[in-house]
Structure prediction request, 171 residues.
Amino acid sequence: MSFAMPRTATRGVVYVHSTPKALCPHVVWAIEGVLGARVSVQWTDQPAGPGLVRTELSWAGESGTGARLASALRGWDHLRYEVTEEPSPGCDGSRWSHTPRLGIHHTWTSASGDAVINEDRLREVVVLAQGSSEAMQEMIEELLGLEWDDELEPFRYAGDGAPVRWLHKVG
Prediction:
């Protein structure tokens, strides 16, 4: 007996906060490979990084597309990016953040975009902190991705008002 599981549709955004111009075609090819469709993005100068460019695009597809996009972009030096995936029926929202110095960080997100820490991780923090409020604060900040947020914030701010292109995966 076999049956097909229904595919859950969701959407999200790929923010390429900064990349050298030479990587632009490779970034586009990676995104196209995941989405299964050609994409056209507008690269603009990144004021927070001389000689770097930025872009962002919205996507629509099945749940898990955000993880596949984040994985496809992972591993290139000098690339700062974030990928978001909105919550959908049966699936939590997510955000993947990447910087050259820190690598990749994943966090679940609420419907309003806030980072969410699940109860098992909180229990582990309480046990590992052994009563130290400083240790607990440090571990919670790591789970929330504070170090990634601090490093990406100047690049996010520089992108305010940038154009967004909506992409829809069909089929």
Observations:
- Residues 164-171 have pLDDT under 50 and may be disordered.
- The two ends are 25 Å apart (CA to CA).
- The first helix runs from residue 24 to 35.
- The beta strands are 9-20, 44-45, 52-62, 80-85, 93-99, 103-109, 115-116, 165-166.
